[in-house]
Structure formats: structure tokens, C-alpha cells
Amino acid sequence: MTESATAAIENDSGVAARPSAVTAAQTLLWVLFAAGLCTFGPYLYTSLFPPEDHVFRLDMVAGTAVLNLAVVSLPLLAFRVGRRGWAARLAAFAVCAASALVFSAYLAPMATDPFYRENGDMAMAGVWLLQFVALPIAAAACLFTPAANRWFRFGA
Fold it and tell me: Higher confidence at residue 40 or residue 38?
């Protein structure tokens, strides 16, 4: 790597400066963490301790536990991405891609079913689309910008 290219990615102290795209990805991972806790935390509690008129369903417990496990991993991934963790970068990409795919598949029938449109559930579907499809795509895109690629490649 040439001296000018090295200077372009280092700050005054000789330490490589973190690109703004990586900082944006970290911020989006923290936002996803907060949104996930607010959204899935109550579901896990309700599935573990169902009200009297509902039955205990192991599939609901397992499903919400997996979602909450992915949500709980986000702060660790955000921290490790900021430390140039290449494996964390790939894991964050995997979590973001899985979120976008799973929720797209979940929300697609809602867009075509008249029941959801008539009963006003489309507003919540829009919020979930923003939270769990658009934000993960944006975070994943930030992790693979050219500046982020250089920063991860030439890091420690």
C-alpha cells in the first residue's frame, strides 16, 4: 500500500480512523437492539408465562427465544465491529440478512391479504418493515462500503 493511501485511512496519531460507514453500522445495530427488545421481549415473557386462557406452546417459546437471542447478540456485534472484528462483521451481516429475509417473508402475505388492510394492521406492518427489513439492510450495506472494506482489511 502506498504512503498516501496509508495516510488517507490514518488519523494524526497514526491509528487508522474509523470510517463513518462503520460508525453508522454500529449505530444501526444499537437501534436494532433497542427495537428488538421493545418488540420481542414482551412476546418471550407472554410465551413463557401465558395468560390463563392461553396454552403453553413450545414453538412460540423457541421462536421468540431465537429472535431474542439474535437481538441480544447485537450489542456484542456492534462492539466487535467497532474493534475491527472481521468475524463480527460477517456475523452482523448474517444476523441482518436473516432479519431482512425472515421478516420480508412474514410481512409479504400481509401486503396481499385484504384482512390486514381492512383491520388497520398495515401500520404495524410498516413499522416492522422499517425496523426489521430496512434498518438491517442499511446496516449490512454500511459494513461493506469501500471505506469499511479498506478499514477491515488493513486493520489489526
Answer: 38
